[in-house]
Design brief:
Shape of chain A: flat
Distance between the termini of chain A: 54 Å
Chains: A mainly alpha (111), B alpha+beta (331), C mainly alpha (545), D mainly alpha (227)
Largest interface: B-C, 86 and 94 residues
Largest sheet of chain A: none
Largest sheet of chain B: 5 strands, mixed
Number of domains of chain B: 3
Order of helices and strands of chain B: HHHEEEEEEEEEEHHHEEHH
Number of helices of chain B: 8
Strand content of chain B: 15-25%
Oligomer: heterotetramer
Helix content of chain B: 40-55%
Chain lengths: 111, 331, 545, 227
C-alpha cells in the first residue's frame, strides 16, 4: 500500500494544538477587539480546519489531484458568497448613479 | 465592420418599423434601447446566416462521393483559432460598454422629476400622486416631464412593465424600487405585471395615459378632492407619537427630521448613508439597522403596525419637512 | 483502436451473448449494476417524463390560440406551465444526455468495464425515480402553480398548491445528479484504458466531465435552497419572508447559482455529442481539439459566475449587475469558439447526410441563434425591456430544445445501433429531423417577436393584438409535437424489427465502435491499449459494417 | 487483466487492481465532500448575509447560547476525530483489537456530542421558547434587537440540525465499520471503507469547527459575559 502511515506523536500533537486553539478562540471572544473579534475567530477556525485537513485527513501526504479538488471546492464556495454579497451589500450605495462615475464609490473603497 | 453594422441596423430598423414588428416607442429612452436592439439583431442574423451558409457550402462541396473515401487530415491553424477567439471577445466588450452606458443613463432620474407612488397587490396596481389623487390600474402622467415611480408590494414580487417606454422593474415586498421615464408621445399604453404573481397574474394589467401637461393639471384638479399625501403623513406621524422624539428643533431623544431628507448621515456602524425613501422606510421598519451615530438605539419598529401606503405617506411628510427648511432658508 | 480495420467482431447478434440477452426478467433489470442497462432504464424513464412534460406544453399552446384563453382557467394554465417547466428541466433535460448516453458511453469510450461505482449508479436511478414519483404525485394531487423557479414569497407564503411535494421531488432528484456526476468524475480520472491520455479522449468525455463538475458543485446549492423553502413554507420562520425581515431576493441568488449552470448541464453534453457526430460524418479529426476541450471546462467554470443576469430588474445592485453582465458576455466566447471549430472541421471533409448528421446541423443553426439572442439579455439596457417577456421563453427554448434536445436526438440516433444492435429506417429519421426543425422554428421564432412587442410570459390571457403571432406559435407546436412522435414510433419499431446492425455501421472511430453491437456485459474482452489520437480518420481505412 | 481469477477480498470486478480501486474510493469520497461543502455553503452564505443585515439581533441571540457547552462539544468532537484517525492507523499497522477499540471510542464521543446538544442545549432552548416555529417568544428585555432574534435561531437550528443529521449518519456508518473491523475485514492491504468514512467524519468535525465561532462567539462575548 502506498498510503503514508502518520506517527502516533503527530496525531497527538495535532490534537493538543486543536484543543489549545479552541481554548484560545473562546478566550479571545471575551476581549473587546471590535471588528477583529470576528476576524480572529475565523482565522483560528481556518487554522484548525487546515490542521484537520492536512493531518487527520492525510491531505499533506495525498496526490496533487486531491489538493486541486479541495481548492476548487473552496473557490466555488467563495464565488457563491462573494457574488451574492456583491449584490446584497452594495444595493444601497449611491442610489442615483450617473454614467461610469457610478463605479467611483466602489473604486475609492480601496484607497 | 462598423459601417456594415450601421448599414445593417438602419436597414433593419426600416423593416422593423412596420407596426406589427416594433412596439410603440413613447419615452425618451426607447429610441436608444431600440437602436441597440437593432444592432444586436443584425449581429445575430449576420452570424447565423454566415455560419449556416458556410456549413451549407461545405456540405455540398465536400459531400461524400465514394463510400470508402478518406479525406486529408485536419490541419491545425492557430492564427485562425486566435482570430475567432479574439474578435468575438472584442465584439462582446463593445456591446457590454454600449449597453452598460445606456443602462447607466437610463437608471438615473433627473433631479426635478415628478414623483408618483406605486403599490402592487395581488392582482392590481394602486397608484397615488403626491397631490392625493389615487388610481387603480391606471396611471396618468404628463408628457415631456420626467416621472419617477417609487414602488413597493404588499404581498409577492410583482413587476411594473410599460413596453412602450422600455422600462421594467420588479416591485418587491419589503423594499422600495424605483423607476423613471419621460413620456414623449401622448397616448394610451399597456401596463403589465411581468413577474409571475399568482392566479390572476395575466389580469394584473392597466393603462398608462400620457397627457399634455395642461391636460394633466386639469385631470389632477378634477380628481376626487382629497388630502395630499404629506398631510395624511403628518397625521400618522402625530398619531403614532413619532413627534415626541423627533422634535423639529432637535431637542427630542431622536434626531430632528427637518431638512433630513437628501442629507448624508453617519451611522453608528461607521457607514455613511444618504437619507432617501429606502432609508426612511428602513428606519421605520427596521430602525436598529440604521442607528445614527450620536443617538441611542431606542426606536421601536413599526413593522406590522402600518401598511405600505402609510409608510409612503410618512415618507412624503418627511420629505415635505426638507423642502420647508429649504423654503425658510430662502426667505 | 489499435487495429486498423474495425470489422473484426462479425458474429450474428442472435447467437452471441450480449448485455441485453445475458439475463432475462424484470428482476435482472431492476437489480442490474451494468451501466448499459442502467442507461436504458434512464432512457425509458426520461422518455416518459418528456412526453408528460410535452403534453403540458401542447395544452398550453392550444390554450393560447385565443386571447381570452381557449381551454382552461388561468389557475390551471399556471399549473400547466409550472409542471411543464419542472418536469422538462429537472426530470428530462438535466438527466437527458448524461444519464442515458453518458452512462452508456463513458465506460465504453474510455475502455473500462463499468463505471467506478456501479451500485451507486443504480442507486442514482432509484433516487431519480423516487423524486419523479413525488413530483408526479404533486401533479396528480392538484398540481403546483409557482413557476418552475419557485420564487419566494409567492411559493413560501401565498401559493395554495402542492409546493412541498414538488420541491421535495426536485430536492431528491438532485442527489441522483450529484451521484451520477461523482461517478463520472472518478471514472474518468481513474479508469481510462492504458495509453488513453486526457488529450486522446473523445470530446464527449470532456463535455461530460465538465457537466459533472457542475453537477457536483451546483446541485447541492439548489438542494439546500429548496430545503429552506420547504421549512419556510411549513414553519413560517422568515428566511425568505419580507414580512418578518427575510429577503426574497436571496432565494433568487441561491436558486440561480444552480439554475444558471444547470443550463450548461443541459447544453454541454449536447456539445460533446456534436463533436462526435461532426467528426464521424465528415471523417475528419476535430479542428482545434484542445480549444474545443478547454472551452467545455471554461464554460463549466464561467457558468457559475453569471447567475445575476436573471436578476437585472429585481433591483439588484448596479455594481453586481455590471459584474454579471460582463461575465455573461464572457461565457459566449467559448461557445462561439466551439461553433467555429465544428464548422471548420467540415472543411475538406467527406460529408454524408445520415440522420444523426442532420440533427447535428439543426443543432448548430438553432444553438447559434439561441446563443446570440443571449446577447440581448446579457446587455443591461435591452434586458430591461426583454426580461420576463416571451423573448426569454424563445431564447432558452432555442438553447434547450433547439440545442440540447436536438443533440440528444442526434446522439440517440447515432448510438442506437450500438445500444440495441438494430438499425432504424434512415428515411423516416431524416424526415423526422426536418419536421422537428421546421416545427421548432415556427413555434419559437414568433415568440422572439412577441417578446420584443412586450408580451410578458406566463400569461393565461393576453391582449388581442398578440394573437397572430401566438397562433403561429401554436401551429408550430403541433408540428413539433408530431415531429417528436415519429422517432418514438420508428425507434420502438426498430428494437424488434429493425435490420441487425454490425459493430460499426457509420464507420466511426472510438473505442465503443470496436465492440460488437450490442456490446457484451463487460464491454471489452480485453482492455484495449490506445495508441492514437481521437478521431484519427486519416490514418486508417474506415468501413461501415 | 490478470487479477480476474484471483480476487483479493473486497475487490470489485470493474477495477484493474486494488490500488486503482482504493484511489477511486478515496477520490469519490473527496468529490462527495465537495458537494457537502456546497450544501453547507448555501446555508453559510445565507447566514453571512443575514448576520450583516441584523448584527445586533445575531449578537443578542448568540449571547443566549451557553458558550461552555459549545466549547465542550468542540473538544468532544475533536477527540472523536483523533480516535477516528487512530482507528485507521491501527488498520494500517494491522492491529485489529485497537481498531475496534478506537472505533467504539469514536462512536461514544459522537453520541456524547449529540447527547449534550439535545439535552443541555436544544431542550433548554425549547423550554425557554427559543425555537422559531414552535412558540418562539420575543423577550422585551432584548429591546430593539428583539424582532430579528428569531432569525438567528433559525440559522442556529438549521445549521446545528443539519450537522446533527450528518453526525447520526456518521454513527450509522461507524456501527457498520465496527462490525466489519471486529470480523477482521480490514488489513494493511485493504482498509478503504475505513479510510473514506474517516474523511467523512473529519469533514463533519470541520463543519463544527466553523459553526462554533459563528454561532457561539459572534461579535465577542464581552458584552454578554454576565449571562
Amino acid at each position: 500500500m502506498s498510503e503514508h502511515i502518520v506517527p502516533l506523536r503527530v496525531y497527538i500533537g495535532i490534537f493538543v494544538a486543536l484543543l489549545l486553539l479552541t481554548a484560545l478562540t473562546t478566550g479571545v471572544a471575551y476581549v473587546d477587539l471590535g471588528a477583529f473579534n470576528t476576524v480572529a475567530a475565523l482565522a483560528i477556525a481556518i487554522v484548525k480546519m487546515l490542521l484537520v485537513v492536512l493531518f487527520f485527513m492525510h491531505v499533506k501526504y495525498s496526490s496533487g489531484l486531491t489538493k486541486v479538488f479541495i481548492l476548487a471546492g473552496v473557490l466555488f464556495f467563495a464565488i457563491l458568497v462573494t457574488l451574492t454579497l456583491a449584490d446584497e451589500l452594495t444595493r444601497h450605495w449611491s442610489p442615483t448613479p450617473s454614467g461610469w462615475g457610478a463605479l467611483l464609490p466602489f473604486v475609492t473603497r480601496f484607497f | 465592420m462598423i459601417g456594415l453594422a450601421k448599414f445593417g441596423s438602419t436597414f433593419l430598423s426600416s423593416v422593423i418599423q412596420a407596426p406589427q414588428l416594433r412596439p410603440e416607442a413613447a419615452s425618451s429612452i426607447a429610441e436608444g434601447v431600440d437602436h441597440l436592439y437593432f444592432v444586436l439583431t443584425f449581429i445575430t442574423l449576420f452570424f447565423t446566416i454566415a455560419i449556416f451558409s458556410t456549413i451549407f457550402f461545405f456540405m455540398v462541396k465536400y459531400r461524400r462521393r465514394a463510400e470508402n473515401e478518406v479525406p486529408p487530415d485536419t490541419e491545425e491553424n492557430l492564427p485562425l483559432e486566435l482570430a475567432w477567439t479574439i474578435i468575438p471577445t472584442l465584439i462582446c466588450a463593445g456591446l457590454f460598454l454600449w449597453a452598460s452606458s445606456l443602462y447607466f443613463e437610463n437608471s438615473r432620474p433627473p433631479s426635478a422629476s415628478t414623483e408618483i407612488f406605486v403599490i402592487g397587490k395581488q392582482w392590481m396596481w394602486h397608484i397615488q400622486h403626491p397631490e392625493g389623487v389615487r388610481e387603480i390600474n391606471e396611471l396618468h402622467v404628463p408628457e415631456g416631464v420626467p416621472v419617477k415611480l417609487t414602488m413597493t408590494s404588499e404581498d409577492v414580487i410583482h413587476d411594473f412593465y410599460i413596453p412602450a417606454f422600455r422600462v421594467k422593474k420588479d416591485v418587491v415586498p419589503g423594499r422600495y424600487s424605483s423607476l423613471w421615464f419621460q413620456a414623449t408621445k401622448a397616448g394610451t399604453y399597456h401596463l403589465f405585471c411581468a413577474q409571475y404573481c399568482g392566479a390572476d397574474h395575466a389580469e394584473m394589467l392597466g393603462w398608462v395615459y400620457v397627457m399634455s401637461p395642461a391636460d394633466y393639471e386639469t385631470w389632477l384638479a378634477s380628481g376626487t378632492p382629497s388630502e395630499t399625501m404629506e398631510k395624511t403623513g403628518e397625521k400618522i406621524f402625530n398619531k403614532l407619537g413619532c413627534s415626541s422624539c423627533h422634535q423639529p428643533d432637535g431637542t427630542g431623544r431622536g434626531p430632528s427630521l427637518v431638512g433630513d431628507y437628501g442629507k448624508e448621515e453617519d451611522l453608528k456602524s461607521g457607514e455613511k448613508r444618504l437619507v432617501d425613501e429606502a432609508f426612511i422606510r428602513q428606519a421605520i421598519i427596521n430602525p436598529n439597522s440604521v442607528v445614527l451615530k450620536n443617538y441611542p438605539p431606542i426606536m421601536p419598529t413599526f413593522r406590522g403596525q402600518i401598511n405600505e401606503e402609510q409608510v409612503l405617506q410618512l415618507i412624503a411628510y418627511v420629505k415635505s419637512l426638507a423642502s420647508e427648511e429649504r423654503n425658510s432658508n430662502g426667505k | 483502436m489499435s487495429t486498423a480495420t474495425l470489422d473484426v467482431h462479425e458474429v450474428p447478434t442472435g447467437s452471441r451473448v450480449n448485455y441485453l440477452n445475458a439475463q432475462y426478467g424484470v428482476k435482472s433489470w431492476l437489480l442490474t449494476t451494468d451501466h448499459k442497462r442502467i442507461a436504458l432504464l434512464y432512457l425509458f424513464s426520461i422518455t416518459l417524463m418528456f412526453f408528460v412534460g410535452g403534453t403540458f406544453a401542447v395544452l398550453m399552446r392550444l390554450h393560447l390560440i385565443e386571447p381570452q384563453g381557449a381551454l382552461v382557467q388561468p389557475e390551471t394554465y399556471n399549473k400547466l406551465f409550472t409542471m411543464h417547466g419542472v418536469i422538462m428541466v429537472f426530470f428530462f433535460l438535466v438527466p437527458s444526455i448524461p444519464a442515458t448516453l453518458g452512462n452508456f458511453l463513458v465506460p465504453m469510450m474510455i475502455g473500462a468495464r463499468d463505471l467506478a461505482f456501479p451500485r451507486l449508479n443504480l442507486l442514482s436511478w432509484y433516487i431519480y425515480i423516487i423524486g419523479a414519483i413525488f413530483t408526479l404525485y404533486a401533479v396528480i394531487s392538484g398540481g403546483v402553480d409557482t413557476g418552475w423557479t419557485f420564487y419566494t414569497p409567492y411559493s413560501s407564503s401565498f401559493s395554495h398548491t402542492s409546493v412541498i411535494p414538488t420541491a421535495l421531488g426536485v430536492f431528491i432528484t438532485g442527489f441522483s445528479s450529484i451521484l451520477t456526476g461523482l461517478n463520472f468524475v472518478v471514472t474518468i480520472h481513474k479508469m481510462r484504458a492504458p495509453g488513453l491520455t486526457w488529450f486522446r479522449l473523445p470530446l464527449f468525455i470532456w463535455a461530460i466531465y465538465a457537466t459533472s463538475i457542475i453537477f457536483i458543485l451546483g446541485t447541492p446549492v439548489i438542494a439546500i435552497t429548496l430545503f429552506l423553502l420547504g421549512l419556510e413554507r411549513l414553519l413560517h420562520i422568515g428566511i425568505f419572508d419580507p414580512a418578518i425581515g427575510g429577503d426574497p431576493i436571496l432565494f433568487q441568488h441561491l436558486f440561480w447559482f444552480y439554475s444558471h449552470p444547470a443550463v450548461y448541464i443541459m447544453i454541454l453534453p449536447g456539445m460533446g455529442v456534436m463533436s462526435e457526430l461532426i467528426t464521424c460524418f465528415s471523417r475528419k479529426r476535430i479542428f482545434g481539439y484542445s480549444f474545443v476541450a478547454f472551452s467545455s471546462l471554461s464554460i463549466a467554470v464561467i457558468s457559475f459566475l453569471v447567475w445575476g443576469h436573471h436578476m437585472f430588474v429585481t433591483g439588484q445592485s448596479i455594481y453586481a449587475g455590471l459584474t454579471f453582465s460582463v461575465l455573461s458576455f464572457m461565457v459566449a466566447i467559448p461557445s462561439a469558439v466551439k461553433v467555429f471549430n465544428w464548422t471548420a472541421t467540415l472543411y475538406k471533409g467527406s460529408i454524408s447526410y445520415d440522420a444523426p448528421m442532420l440533427y447535428a446541423l439543426g443543432f448548430i443553426g438553432l444553438f447559434t441563434m439561441g446563443g446570440l439572442t443571449g446577447f440581448f439579455l446579457a446587455s443591461l439596457a435591452t434586458d430591461v425591456h426583454l426580461n420576463g417577456t416571451y423573448f426569454i421563453v424563445a431564447h432558452f427554448h432555442y438553447i434547450m430544445v433547439g440545442g440540447a434536445v436536438m443533440a440528444y436526438l442526434g446522439g440517440i440516433h447515432f448510438w442506437w445501433p450500438k445500444i440495441t444492435g438494430r438499425l432504424y429506417p434512415d428515411g423516416w429519421a431524416r424526415f423526422a429531423a426536418l419536421v422537428i426543425f421546421v416545427g421548432f422554428n415556427l413555434t419559437f421564432f414568433p415568440q422572439f417577436m412577441l417578446g420584443y412587442l412586450g408580451m410578458p410570459r406566463r400569461y393565461a390571457v393576453y391582449p388581442s393584438e398578440f394573437q397572430v403571432l401566438n397562433v403561429m406559435s401554436s401551429a408550430g407546436a403541433s408540428i413539433l409535437g408530431i415531429g417528436y412522435l415519429i422517432p418514438l414510433i420508428y425507434l420502438t419499431w426498430s428494437m424488434r424489427y429493425g435490420p441487425t446492425a454490425g459493430p460499426n455501421p457509420w464507420g466511426a472511430k472510438g473505442l465503443e465502435w470496436t465492440t460488437p453491437s450490442p456490446p457484451p456485459t463487460e464491454n471489452f474482452e480485453e482492455i484495449p491499449v490506445v495508441t492514437e489520437d481521437a478521431y484519427d480518420y486519416a490514418h486508417s481505412t474506415v468501413t461501415r459494417g | 487483466m490478470a487479477v480476474h481469477n484471483a480476487h483479493p477480498p473486497g475487490f470489485a470486478h470493474q477495477f484493474e487492481d486494488m490500488e486503482q480501486q482504493r484511489e477511486a474510493g478515496s477520490l469519490g469520497m473527496w468529490v462527495f465532500l465537495l458537494t457537502e461543502l456546497m450544501f453547507f455553503g448555501g446555508l453559510f452564505a445565507s447566514y453571512i448575509i443575514y448576520r450583516a443585515l441584523y448584527l445586533p439581533s445575531f449578537e443578542k441571540g448568540s449571547h443566549l447560547l451557553d458558550v461552555r457547552f459549545g466549547a465542550l462539544n468542540t473538544a468532544v468532537l475533536l477527540a472523536s476525530s483523533l480516535t477516528m484517525a487512530l482507528a485507521i492507523r491501527s488498520a494500517q499497522v494491522g492491529r485489529r483489537r485497537a481498531q475496534v477499540g478506537f472505533l467504539i471510542t469514536t462512536m461514544i464521543l459522537g453520541a456524547a456530542f449529540l447527547a449534550i446538544k439535545f439535552t443541555f442545549e436544544w431542550h433548554h432552548d425549547y423550554v425557554e421558547h427559543l425555537v422559531p416555529g414552535f412558540g418562539f417568544v420575543i423577550n422585551s428585555d432584548w429591546g430593539a434587537a428583539g424582532p430579528h432574534v428569531p432569525m438567528f435561531f433559525c440559522f442556529y437550528f438549521f445549521m446545528t440540525g443539519l450537522h446533527a443529521i450528518h453526525m447520526i449518519i456518521g454513527l450509522g456508518i461507524l456501527t457498520a465499520l465496527t462490525i466489519m473491523a471486529h470480523r477482521g475485514r480490514f488489513n494493511p492491504q485493504y482498509y478503504s471503507p475505513l479510510e473514506v468514512s474517516g474523511l467523512y467524519w473529519h469533514f463533519v468535525d470541520i463543519v463544527w469547527i466553523f459553526l462554533f465561532p459563528l454561532l457561539y462567539l459572534i461579535g465577542g462575548r464581552y458584552m454578554g459575559a454576565g449571562h
